[in-house]
Design a protein that fits this description.
Layout lengths: L4 H4 L6 H8 L3 H8 L7 H14 L15 E6 L5 H17 L2 E6 L13 H8 L3 E5 L5 H9 L4 E4 L10 E5 L1 H14 L5 E5 L5 H16 L9 E3 L4 H12 L7 E4 L2 H13 L9 E6 L2 H5 L5 E4 L2 H16 L8 E4 L2 E3 L11
Parallel strand pairs: 1-2, 1-3, 3-4, 4-5, 5-11, 6-7, 6-8, 8-9, 9-10
Antiparallel strand pairs: 10-12
Helix pairs in contact: 2-3, 2-4, 5-13, 8-9, 10-11
């Protein structure tokens, strides 16, 4: 899709409006926008606040002759195997499509999972034709800007329910929760706990819902005290496992909603002198490299992150060509990977 500057620029506040709002001259406002250092701190603060308040974004410089061959990948962090899998999937698919990828990361997490102000300025300046988001999401004004300027975007594995109209690619999280729980039930476990991520995320909620559904289908009583949340944090998961072990009737198996959290569960069990799977069976979710490296190797539910990223890039290319997907949500299947961390309960 070839876009001209005049076709893609929607009405918005001009730099003159921003300067007037901040009580400065247009050249001074321009210096702040362009990152010049010869501006007093207080003046910079006023201009920056006005930019944010008015939603000013520099006009994009899309090439009217050469079709854009550049896309942005916005990630919350480059740390960890999950990001590595996403980068691999995007890079492979972009190479096949003849596209280049610019990676925009917020390693310190200062953006709280949302791109910082100024990112759209840079995107417009380099003329990126589309955007992929992983574990990050555009703010409402940013999404509106992308839609106004006909810059398509796709969310990869979004943690929360996307805003209306946003296209996303994720895993079959509910089915993954069912699969994990059914595996433990088939081994003879009935006292099965779950350690989930954040309470209000759709990803975590779907996995817990699958867990509950499998218990219900098997006629096993659901115990509210067996459901804990650890925010996908290894240290918090270790604390939640300690709490489960302190119950009058502790679980004989635990479904941990990420492999990283499962490592914290392993630590909590080792502290008590308990063995996996002889005393407690553990099953994770992701099939990250850590699952194979742990001792014992972790049984887990695989979600195909690299394939999800490649699928998202494929959808983005179609959208760049003006083809809107039939559905805003695409789900890739999960599957059980059996290793050594699950076994029948001792009293089974």
């Amino acid at each position: 899709m070839v876009r001209t500057g005049s076709a893609s620029v929607a009405a918005g506040p001009t730099l003159a409006v921003v300067a007037r709002e901040a009580g400065v001259s247009v050249p001074t406002a321009s210096k702040v926008v362009n990152g010049r250092q010869d501006v007093a701190p207080e003046t910079r603060r006023r201009v920056t606040e006005a930019l944010d308040r008015l939603g000013y974004v520099r006009r994009p410089r899309f090439d009217a002759v050469r079709p854009p061959r550049l896309v942005d990948l916005v990630v919350r962090s480059l740390d960890g195997s999950r990001s590595g899998a996403v980068l691999h999937g995007v890079e492979r698919a972009a190479h096949d499509a003849g596209l280049d990828v610019v990676v925009c990361a917020d390693p310190a997490g200062a953006g709280g999972g949302r791109p910082r102000r100024g990112w759209l300025d840079r995107l417009g300046a380099r003329g990126s034709a589309g955007v992929l988001f992983h574990l990050a999401e555009p703010t409402e004004p940013q999404q509106a800007w992308l839609e106004q300027h006909h810059v398509p975007f796709v969310l990869i594995d979004p943690a929360v329910e996307p805003r209306p109209g946003a296209v996303s690619v994720g895993a079959a999280n509910w089915q993954g929760g069912v699969t994990a729980t059914e595996h433990l039930l088939a081994l003879g476990h009935e006292r099965i706990a779950v350690i989930a991520g954040q309470r209000r995320t759709s990803v975590s909620g779907a996995r817990v819902a699958g867990y509950r559904s499998a218990l219900s289908a098997a006629g096993v009583r659901h115990r509210p005290e067996y459901v804990r949340h650890a925010g996908f944090d290894e240290t918090a998961a270790r604390r939640r496992m300690r709490e489960l072990l302190a119950l009058p009737e502790p679980p004989t198996a635990v479904f941990v909603c990420s492999d990283r959290m499962a490592l914290g569960v392993y630590e909590a069990l080792a502290e008590r002198g308990l063995r996996v799977p002889d005393d407690v069976s553990v099953i994770g979710f992701d099939d990250a490299p850590e699952a194979r490296w742990s001792t014992p190797a972790l049984t887990t539910v695989r979600q195909p992150l690299a394939e999800m990223a490649a699928t998202a890039l494929g959808l983005l290319v179609r959208m760049m060509d003006g083809d809107r997907p039939d559905s805003t949500r695409t789900e890739l299947s999960t599957r059980l990977v059996r290793r050594a961390s699950t076994a029948a309960p001792k009293d089974g």
